[in-house]
Amino acid sequence: MAARTDSFDLGTLSLASGEGRRLTLAVAPGSFDFGGTQYAVEPAQVDAILDISRMTHGGYALRLRFAAGLSGPCMRCLEPAAPTFEVDAREVNQPGGGEELTSPYVEGEVLDVAAWARDAYALALPAQLVCREDCAGLCPECGANLNDDPEHAHERALDPRWAKLRELRFE
Question: How far apart are CA 68 and CA 62, in angstroms?
């Protein structure tokens, strides 16, 4: 595993225009909080592939790729969940290119790898973290895990507005 890198000085590569390099860096995306519940990134430090290309007029084209799991309770059934998510993020930093061509992760020639990895991982996460795609969740009436008992059901409660009709007797 590579040594942890929170920032990387792009200038140390001394790339000429059109030249590129591929590096393997260790990054730590950190933990995430969803609805007050902490989810830990597994492993805490992942190997990320960083592709750096020098563009004409002095800019950089950057690509960051890695995969990491997230462990914590399933948002549907509360059982342990540990899905893995792939990250493939790209950034462009062209000095004087305007807002669209300026990366928020590059300051001068220094790339903030840790912040970029965390933000890219957060964008790769779904709205709900589940233990499996077809997770049925919990019964809204009694809280039973519907994954364990797919045939689980309750009798429908009678509508109280019709209660007086049940008292009628036809003889």
Answer: 20
Angle at 58 between CA 98 and CA 2, to 5 degrees: 105
- Residues of the chain by 3-state class (helix, strand, coil), percent to 5: 15, 35, 45
76: left (phi over 0), alpha (psi -120 to 50) or beta: alpha
Query: CA 10 to CA 140: how far, in whole Å?
Result: 54
Q: CA triplet 15, 21, 23: central angle to 5 degrees?
A: 130
Residue 47's DSSP bridge partners are 26
What are the pLDDT tens digits along the chain (171 aa)?
A: 666 788 899 989 999 989 999 999 999 988 998 878 899 999 999 999 999 999 988 899 999 999 999 999 999 999 999 999 999 999 999 887 788 888 999 998 899 999 999 999 999 999 899 999 999 999 988 999 999 988 998 888 778 888 888 788 887
Claim: this prediction has a pTM higher than 0.90: no
Element (H, E) at 121: helix 113-124
